[in-house]
Amino acid sequence: MSEPVQTPQTFSTRIFSGIQPSGGMTLGNYLGALKRFSELQDRGVETIYCVVDLHAITVWQDPSKLRHQTREIAAAFLASGIDPKRSILFNQSQVTVHAELAWIFNCVARIGWMYRMTQFKDKAGKNAENSSLGLLAYPSLMAADILAYKATHVPVGEDQKQHLELTRDIAIKFNHDYGVNFFPVTEPLIEGAATRVMSLRDGSKKMSKSDPSDQSRINLTDDADTIAAKIRKARTDPEPLPETAEGLATRPEAKNLVNIYAALSGQSLESVVAEFAGAQFGSFKPRLVDLAVEKLGPITAEMSRLMADPAEIDRILGNGAARAEAIARPHMDEVYDLVGMIRARR
Ligand code: AMP
Ligand code: TRP
What we know:
- By secondary structure, the protein is mostly helical.
- It folds into two domains: about 15-195 and about 310-340, HUPs (Rossmann fold), CATH 3.40.50.620; about 215-305, Tyrosyl-Transfer RNA Synthetase.
- About 55% of the residues lie in helices and about 5% in strands.
- It is built from 13 helices and five strands.
- It has helices at about 25-40, 55, 65-80, 95-110, 110-115, 120-125, 135-145, 160-175, 225-235, 250-265, 270-275, 280-305, 310-340; strands at about 15-20, 45-50, 85-90, 155, 185-190.
- It has a three-stranded parallel beta sheet.
- Strand 1, helix 1 (about 25-40) and strand 2 (about 45-50) form a beta-alpha-beta unit.
- Helix 3 (about 65-80) packs across helix 12.
């Protein structure tokens, strides 16, 4: 990341982001989110990261699997460089302000705003009437996650852009309705070569933990042989790699693999294209395998080391929750006051 983080006046820079514990982590989550989360932490800004378990249950989750997945996502944060001393790391349901503020936002946001969300349309599918009410209200809870901390910047992948626009709309409407400048109008941080990592099987679909085909994605729990097999089988076209980045414009599968290489190696797309100009996929893919195994191997190993001690993960999440609560609770008290709720001493 090269651009300095610009902060809207009157609010100090604070980063917030979240990941759902609705399945294992993919290379898309790593490159689009986790890798950048630790880069931001290392730049010394205040960073708050959350495993959003309340969001996960907007679609059915088996309780014991949910607990396991929550710890696994926490382990992925830690293994990819999040330091629980420098960042706040916790799971959402332990800080009840998220649910409380989401209710207030449910009364600020309009139903029509929710129906327009493409993620809702995709997840609800044809039978929208039968999806949970929580799935429709999902963006309101996401706005609460961010605004409970008055976070100014939110690093996410491309797919979350629309939700962040809605967060801005909610902040603006709340400030307007109550005649205050209470919530910041949050800026999305969607940057880098891998804001949208695509499926290895279909260059028009994003790589996703919920894709029925395991071949479509690289999981952070995959071993070296599995990563190698998936990359070898990844869909490509018969042409060699082009001389310039523009030559990838109409070749989504090829572009995806080059983007992944660029993001993993920390190079620009242009410099990777220059390095491999004219090469066949038969020689590019083994280089990508080596790079992916080199970068992901240590993360996978660290995740399994951490997962052997779930009590330690729970302790880290509990500590993080206490620190998160200390920031969010005073904001929530002010919100209740602004909205006109009586807060009697007890
Ligand atoms: P989720 O797994 O949906 O909770 O997403 C967690 C974070 O990973 C969000 O910031 C997403 O935008 C990001 N993300 C998920 N899938 C991808 C992908 N295929 N490419 C880039 N970023 C992604
Ligand atoms: N909706 C995000 C996703 O699916 C997860 C999320 C929930 C989030 N709350 C957030 C991301 C707050 C950023 C900020 O990826």
